[in-house]
Amino acid sequence: xxxxxxxxxxxxxxxxxxxxxxxxxxxxxxxxxxxxxxxxxxxxxxxxxxxxxxxxxxxxxxxxxxxxxxxxxxxxxxxxxxxxxxxxxxxxxxxxxxxxxxxxxxxxxxxxxxxxxxxxxxxxxxxxxxxxxxxxxxxxxxxxxxxxxxxxxxxxxxxxxxxxxxxxxxxxxxxxxxxxxxxxxxxxxxxxxxxxxxxxxxxxxxxxxxxxxxxxxxxxxxxxxxxxxxxxxxxxxxxxxxxxxxxxxxxxxxxxxxxxxxxxxxxxxxxxxxxxxxxxxxxxxxxxxxxxxxxxxxxxxxxxxxxxxxxxxxxxxxxxxxxxxxxxxxx
Length: 331
Ligand code: SAM
Ligand code: SF4
Hints:
This protein is of the alpha/beta class. It is built from 10 helices and 14 strands. S-adenosylmethionine (SAM) binds near residues 100, 192, 327 and 331.
């Protein structure tokens, strides 16, 4: 193990400590804002990094650069076989381990994930109405997700957070329902501004329900106070004054948090991306399979992050949509 960490710093002085690993591009849902109803070829099986390869990249990031957070995502990470095996491999590294999931596998998988060393979990849920849930995800599985939320809590995963993408004219009338849901279930809801990463390319700015609108809607019903910002946490947070917990908003579109970004992403096929919206990637898979040493990997990652841009430019003329959709990058 390296005796000392060398911080992974980009040209703007941002130190990177957080690794998002997409374990698969496959998914058992087809959310309208993420995937097309049909099509979207899966990555070839041989192109996916093995658990050993994923864990090696994570180890290099922790040992060489002092990363302290690793989040597994996808696609739907729980559709990849034996996910607890990967979690076990990662849990020895000492970084905080979390998972983002649509929740459907949790009724049977939550205890095994926790036992393998998973600590935190984010579960995506965009409607509490059965019909609407089906329209958004193209699957009739609301009950499974609700059971999954309970299973995660019962398994001792903490905190359990709910990710809710708010879209105008789709589910923006449920903002207060979600606030109530979070208060009643003891989970933190994080509302996410809709980003231009849908596979169909149909995103428009008018569909984005802004942070200001979300907070105003909840503030009309509950008395709120701002929670102090945590460095590099993309969520702006509010507390219910009556002690009912808190909620967050991730204003990815209206108030990009690029200046405090500390993330790099590894796609399931082994490409390192320094931004969700990056238009370039580092092919780590070729390095891993071509006999690269840990020093080689660390040097390549350092060089790639050195090239990181100041930030994405959604809503500006320069903005270019990445060629991959959210499910292929790993949100
Ligand atoms: N399948 C898992 C899930 O849904 O939680 C993990 C992968 S999913 C791509 C990760 C997160 O990205 C989810 O919370 C999802 O709601 C969010 N997401 C997907 N497409 C989005 C978009 N166009 N804008 C904002 N968030 C999006
Ligand atoms: Fe699947 Fe998650 Fe994308 Fe929905 S948001 S299609 S659950 S990867």
